[in-house]
């Protein structure tokens, strides 16, 4: 079996997990190189998992002729430039979301993708590969819910993770770009339509620090789609119970709720607190399988010489809509999208 | 025990239930008179439950000197006029929601209530008396959820009830006034704040008939409150599973969900459809106890010479906000409230 | 409306609740007399609820010619004697479970009932009147679960109630007679068959005091029924989460679970403990409606001159089986029943 | 990284899954050989996954000097003989449950294991590696449930799988040996005690074919453990809803329920059937991760030169107890174990 030799860019918590998935959990993939700023992390990964190449310079890594593909888990503002360079170097690219932090950046990526129609480019919106979302999407496509007309999406980080969030505040791009972008993508995907109008609100209910960046610790938005469907998004940083990613699709003949209890496992506890399920505390736990399945899809696309359903244009749209919602929130006005 | 002698006005499905509650389920209440347009219904209730007086004319009934109070379950547009007349006749008044169908009507009721400070006036927003809502409100007031900052409310009729809804379409006042008014009241009550801005959207996803009245079969609204909290309402007529009244309060330290499964009873069924709970199919089943408890509160207020928490001004505000949302929906614009 | 004038015997926690139900919650019933050992309780109830007669002597009460019926909530060992006397005095009788504490006592009650075929005698096995059990029984009778072949019943008191249990230990008759008798009755009712063999086990896992009475703080039994069905009972006194009465019927085509989460209300709480429902803490809360409905059935039987489904022979059988299980537990042997 | 080269024995549904797990899902394992009766299956697996060696003769395979270990998923009656041969050939052994179909067979395996203390022998009771069971076991060991005193275990196959079961009936060894053995092992593991007495019952409630083998289509057993704890097992073949493996541990301070809804995924469906979760339909879906984790543990034991917690003696005990329960069922008597 020919293996796809991949270079992993970025070794933060998620990057490390992706690296492990490449190394061990997708048989047709091989972790050939890692690239990061921190030399100790590079060394650690290379030693532990026997990775032949390590780099602190991205430009250097993509010159490695053994590589077939790169997986970008670098800061969002670097994505588009790195995408262009990798594609120009003849490498397939899997990039973490968001595509870019400005629409201009995204346009650069679009051009690069168009210039290399023979290479696979894929965006890591992992919900599209989560087994429960995949199951729900199939039910919708089969007409099991009739006409879907309302999307409700919650993306809540547990309050226990607030320190990391606060440190990262200056670079996150804000709630809509950093978190709600997942719901923007999922709503477009599950409703199969584009939002045309929106109003975004929110506030600093627990952490005034967010206000310094004209942001809120919890925000929401109502959107009207081109096919008349409604969308309600809520993104927050103070969930008391866990990492709550919950999606509801209301249709004329059925309603689907995904993850309405973000249960950690199949254990139910009956004690002095009542009858309860403990909750997933972070995205790595909740989306463990989705991360593997998205990597598998990327590798399969390369092997089978086909393109993933999610395109670079989805990336641009998601970024643009997230920006528009940020604008609606900051100026408190109803906006037209596009 | 002195009993409060009551006259029931309106003998539709809900009116009959209220009449039965007065007659049998609140010991300190007595069903002394019924008033309706349909003579056969009057006769039936009088005979079955031994009710001494029956009327087809409201004005006649309120002259009955034996009466202490009236319960209005008449068409919404008659409420305020009937309230004024009953109070002027020296009767305590419990009125179904909404207070009135225009703000002008509501103002008439306000004046009448102010003119009779010795009489009890109460509005039948039954959720305020439902045991689960009461429990949640208490938890909020005790600080168990920290600062509540998001209200989500669903009010869905089962599709099985659509025929009745369609017949009544010309007179309902629309989704916001007829259904969402419950969530407007509950949001104001649970968030303890007033909405100041809103945007309402919706559509006819299954029943184009609603469009004839510039209404939707499913609608929603996003609201910003004076204390910065967010509110999302959804009201619909096509729920596939049952009568779904679901409320969520998200706070900085806890989240409460009321009725997220509108379960019929405590039976869980495991069969070829999976593991499931059957759902309540109408408001009479879901709010059975709430209707008794609200009646009990009204009677207790009279006996103990005190006023209920919900006031005539709540009624006016709820109606006004429902109108504002209707306007936002019909003109598709972001509106300021008040 | 002619009302059934009732005398309530016993004013413990449950007796008081029954008295209130007679007085206020079943319209066709009237609380005409109360009988108890404690004069202050009698006075309190008489004053609060305007009850004309109060007695400390049962024999005196049943001479009151105004009475139509008595409700016995006295110590179990007095039931059968009081049943006989009341029937002989021409009164209808509703008796709390168990019928008696020995089979001999039960036989006395059987004879008395046979002697007065014109009078209504009913046993207060309240699960038979609980809305969820009634719903499940109907599904079974309609064949919705196919052939029911396994009954699983849990009857668990919350550990918070242990003090009361320990005080009462000398008089309870033991776990099988005091608690498991509910599951014995429910299994016979739902499986529509009689147990023919059983083995009972248990132990003192938290409270050695039970051993003084040759009893366990938690016990269980496996039973084989005449129709080959299986029954598993578990009765315990140390439930950490609440008053857990849970019943499962496994059939060849469907499975029903009643009360598998003994939820207090419809509120779901999401907090640092996960996603949870709080639990009912005692029988009065869990079976509130069942107690009203069983009283209603008794009154309806009198008014409509018919007999309840549950008979005095059910009472005898339940007591006998509970005794047999006690024997199996104490002697640790497999027993034949009957 | 040195990889453990494994030979897979048996390529039925479960064997194929194990083969895939060796080949792709445990990085330190390598699928070097497969052995089965069906040549086409051998060829298929060899071609698809690039497996170097294929055998129809077990004795031949274990002579392959490249092999480090074998995984036995052959008919149960062959296990012990194959275990002895593999160990004698210097191979580590992972064997599917049950260890053997008679205690005599098990003793042969015990001796072989004792003879080769340097080799890893492990039994594939996969529940011990399922993340939810592992989590529950940890909670119990940490004292979170106080003293555990009741084990309840359900092992139900969906009725949809009945055809396969009926075909296999002559060779399964019966419900207790084929299915309940999982609960026997789990009860011993979670209660940390051995059963000393038991009574087993059951019947043919839907499929009289089981009676031909002196077996039932649904059976149960009550067990008393040496530490006084109680155990109730239920094993059935007619579950209407899915593959229901459900375990409850009741302790003096907490209760744990594992898998009480055998949910397929995180999707909740609200439709005309109520609010429901669809269920896992087979063991491969339910225990997907457990099968990987148990293989990982086996490989880790070899690499780290240590022994798994589960021993060959557990295998003998589980088989013996299953036999004893079968005897109790067939002769309908209370039995002493050991």
Based on the model shown, name its key terms.
homotetramer, 338 residues, alpha/beta, Rossmann fold, Dihydrodipicolinate Reductase, domain 2, seven-stranded mixed β-sheet, six-stranded parallel β-sheet, 15 strands, 27% strand, oxidoreductase activity (chains A, B, C, D), oxidoreductase (chains A, B, C, D), NAD(P)-bd_dom_sf (chains A, B, C, D), Putative dehydrogenase (chains A, B, C, D), Myo_inos_IolG (chains A, B, C, D)
What number of structural domains do the residues of chain A give? 2
* Assembly category: homotetramer
Instruction: Give average pLDDT of chain A, whole number.
Output: 96
State the name of the first-level CATH class of the largest domain in chain A.
Answer: Alpha Beta
CATH topology of the largest domain in chain A: Dihydrodipicolinate Reductase, domain 2
Give a quick rundown of the structure:
Chains A, B, C, D: InterPro entries: Gfo/Idh/MocA-like_OxRdtase_N (IPR000683), GFO_IDH_MocA-like_dom (IPR055170), Myo_inos_IolG (IPR030827), NAD(P)-bd_dom_sf (IPR036291). Chains A, B, C, D: One of its GO terms (molecular function) is oxidoreductase activity. The structure is a homotetramer of 338-residue chains. Chain A contains 11 helices and 15 strands.
